[in-house]
Amino acid sequence: MNLNLDWSFFSWDLYTNFVAKGLVFSLTLTVIATLGGIIFGTLLALMRLSGKKWLEVPAVIYVNGMRSIPLVMVILWFFLLMPMIIGKPIGAETSAIITFVAFEAAYFSEIMRAGIQSIPRGQVHAGQAMGMTYGQNMRLVVLPQAFRNMLPVLLTQTIILFQDTSLVYAIGAYDMLKGFEIAGKNFGRPIESYLAAAATYFVICFALSWAVKQLHKKIAIIR
User: Fold this and answer.
1) Is the dihedral of CA 28, 29, 32, 35 positive or negative?
2) What DSSP state is assigned to residue 174?
3) What is the rounded distance in angstroms from the CA atom of residue 70 to the CA atom of residue 103?
4) CA dihedral defined by 157, 217, 210, 99, rounded to 10 degrees?
5) What is the per-residue pLDDT for 141?
6) Integer Cα distance of 123 and 136 in angstroms
7) DSSP H or E stretch at residue 43
């Protein structure tokens, strides 16, 4: 089969005129979802490890529930149902940001829970012996070490998150994939445009994965 590919339209202007805006949103969504996911995920992890049923049960239900639903379904449900509940549209970009933070919190929660549980109990007991409260022990002793131990895993999840930002295409948000799609329609070369999008995602994610591996080696040396 002859695809008859034509790359004559491919230039730097393609990125500046069509892709740059979408790339900025994809990166912004990744950063906000990562920070929000880590913050709320850490709270969920602490709730699950608190030993108090009234905190543990809601956290377990939330985490397991979110992890059992495809992200694209959560995006569509929130985008379509929330305007019906509040009585006004919230926009594709805003909907994507809220959805990603809520969804990623469940995954970052499991990462942080594993990181907290990896800290030797002796250090926790040492903090208690010094008179630290549960909150002080977590903030000053456990969480800093857990973040360091889990940093490569957190960054790997962030790379996966960046790849998942392409799913906001389902609600019409202008992400990087949307920019390539519009360029393909304008130039009448949709196949080449999607191939260029795949290559761009690969280059970005491969570079980030390589950086995470180097960071992991440095952390291993410090340990």
Assistant:
1) negative
2) -
3) 10
4) 10
5) 85
6) 13
7) helix 20-48
Q: Token pair 């949709």 is at which residue?
A: 190
Query: CB–CB of 212/152 below 8 Å?
Result: yes
Return the structure tokens found at 195. 């191939």
φ/ψ of 87, rounded to 5, equals 85, 10
Per-residue pLDDT of 200-215, as tens digits, reads: 999 999 999 999 988 8
Is 63 in contact with 44 (CB distance < 8 Å)?
A: yes
- In the prediction, which pLDDT does 1 show? 45
Residue 119 corresponds to which tokens in the numbers above? 């800290």
pLDDT tens, residue by residue, 110-159: 999 999 888 888 887 787 788 787 778 888 888 888 888 888 899 999 99
Counting as low any pLDDT under 50, the low residues of the chain are 1-2
- The vertex-121 CA angle with 115 and 123, nearest 5°, equals 95
User: What integer pLDDT is reported at residue 6 of this predicted model?
Assistant: 78
Q: How far is CA 138 from CA 92, 104, 132, in A?
A: 37, 22, 9
Residue showing tokens 């985008």: 79
Asked whether 104 and 68 are in contact (CB, 8 A), the reply is no
Sign of CA dihedral 28, 31, 34, 36: negative
- In this structure, the number of other CB atoms found within 10 A of the CB of residue 164 comes to 19
Q: With beta carbons less than 8 A apart as the criterion, state whether 156 and 213 touch.
A: no
